[in-house]
UniProtKB/TrEMBL annotation:
Entry-linked InterPro entries: LipidA_mod_glycosyltrf_83, RgtA/B/C-like
Cross-referenced Pfam families: PMT_2
Keywords of this entry: Cell membrane, Glycosyltransferase, Membrane, Transferase, Transmembrane, Transmembrane helix
GO biological process, one term: lipopolysaccharide biosynthetic process
Protein's organism: Polaribacter aestuariivivens
Transmembrane spans: 16-37, 77-98, 110-127, 154-186, 198-216, 246-268, 288-308, 314-330, 337-358
GO cellular component: plasma membrane
Its membrane topology: Multi-pass membrane protein
Domain Glycosyltransferase RgtA/B/C/D-like: 56-216
A molecular-function term among this protein's GO annotations: pentosyltransferase activity
Residues in the signal sequence: none
Record protein name field: Glycosyltransferase family 39 protein
Amino acid sequence: MSSVEKITSYFKKNKAISWVLAFQLFRFILLPFMGLMPQDAYYHLYGQNLSLSYFDHPGMIGYILRIFTDTFGQTVFVVKFADFVITSATILSFYKLASYFLSKTKQQKALLLFASTIFVSILSFNSTPDVPLLLFWTLSLVCLYKAIFEEKKWYWVLGGVAMGLAFNSKYTAILLQFGLLAFLIFSNKYRKLLLSPWVWISIIISAAVTFPVWYWNYQNEFASFAFQSSARTSSISKFEISPKNFFGAIGHQLFLLLPILFLVIITFTYKYIKRALLKFKIPQAKTLFLLAFFVPTFVGFFALTPIYWVKLNWMMPSYITGIIIAGMFINKKLLKLQLIFSIVFHVLFSLQILFYLVPIKSDDTWVGWKELAIETEDLQEKYPNTFVFSDDNYKTAACLNFFMDDKVYAQNIIGLPALHFDYLGDDLYTLKGKNALFIDSDKRFKNKNKLGEINPLLTKYFKNVTELEPIIIKVNGKEQRKFWIFYCTDYQPKK
C-alpha cells in the first residue's frame, strides 16, 4: 500500500479527524481576508512595549504576538496566524486530554464537538488573553492527570509551570488551583494526596511562575488587580437583578457552543448537581476530575449572570473538560445536527468576512482601520507637526498605532484614564505647545454631518479647537464608517 493510500485509508477510518482538519483549513483560508481587530492591535501594543505585566491583563498574548511579528513581520496576517497556531495547539492538547477519559470513538466525537464550535473560530482569528489561556489550561490538565492518575511525580512540576503560565495569560486561571484542591478534597481515593509534598510543590511552582505579574502590580500599586476586581465587586454587591444580563449570557453561550452542545452541557450539569445535592453521590474519580475544572467556571459565572454582565469569553476555560463530558453523552444523531449548525454558522461567518453584508455599528470591527490610518496621515501632511490622539479606551489609538509610523495617543492626553496607555512611560509634557488631531468614532453613522459640538475637555487642554470635515470610510464601495476630526492647537498638559 502506497503512502497516499495509507493516508486515505486513515482518514476514511477517522472521519472526525478529517472534519477537524477541514475546519482548520477553512479557518486558515479565511485568515488573509480578516482585517485588524482592535484587540489584535491593543495586544500587539503590549508586545511592542515589553513589560513584566500590563494594566488590563498579564502579558502572554503580547509576548506571543511579539515573537511572531519579530519572526515573520508586522502584518495583520501574522497577528492572525499567531492566534491560529496557538489555537491549533490547543486543539491537539484537547485531543490528548480527551484520550485519558474517553474511548477512541467518543474521543473523536469530543474532538469534533470542540473543533467545530464558534469559540474556536473566534480564538483562531482574534487576539485575546484567552488564546494562550486555553492552551496552558489544557496543558495544565494533561500534566495534572498524569501526576494524579499515573503517579508520575515530575508532572507535578510541569503542571505547576503550566498553571503559572495560564495565570500569566489571564487571571481567571487561578481557578486551576481551586479545581485541583476541590478535586482532592471531594475524592475519597485521592484525598490523601493533600498530604503529599508534590501537590504543594506544584502550587508553589505555579505561584513562582506568576511572580512577574505580582511584581509588576507591586511596582504599580496593584493597579491591575484593582482594575479587575474593584468595579466588578462593587457592581455585584449592589445585587440588582437583570433578566437582560441572564438571557444575554445564554445567547452568548448558544452562539459560542452552538445550540446542541450547549443543551447537552446544560443537561449533564443539571444531572450531576442534582445527584450531588439530593442524593449526595460523588462521581467516580475521573469524572470528578473533569467536573472540578468545569463547575467552578461554568456554573460559577452563570450564577452571576442575573446580577452582573458576564462577558462571553469568561466561561471558555470550562469548555475544555465540559466538552469531554459532553462526548460521553452525545449520540451520533445529535452530533450530526451540531455539525449542520456549525457548517451553516461558519458559512454565514465567512460571507460576513468576505463581503461585510451586515454593517457592524461598533468599533469592534475588522474593517476601516487601515483606511483611517491612510486618511489620518494625509491630514497630518495638511496640518504638519501634529500628534494624533483619540478617546475610546484603546480601540482607535491601538489600531492607528499598528498602521502608522508616528506614535498615536489615547485619552490620557485630556486627563482621562487610558488603560495601559497610562503605563507606556510617555512624558506628555514633551507635547506641550504642540497641535493635535483628535479622532472620535461615530459608531452609529447615520449621516455625513459634522458633530457640531466640542468636547469640553478638549477646550480645557487646548487653546483652540476646530472641527474638520469627518473622515468617511467606504467598504466594498459603500460608506460604512465615520470618524469626527478636530484640529486642536497649543496643547497644555495639566500637572
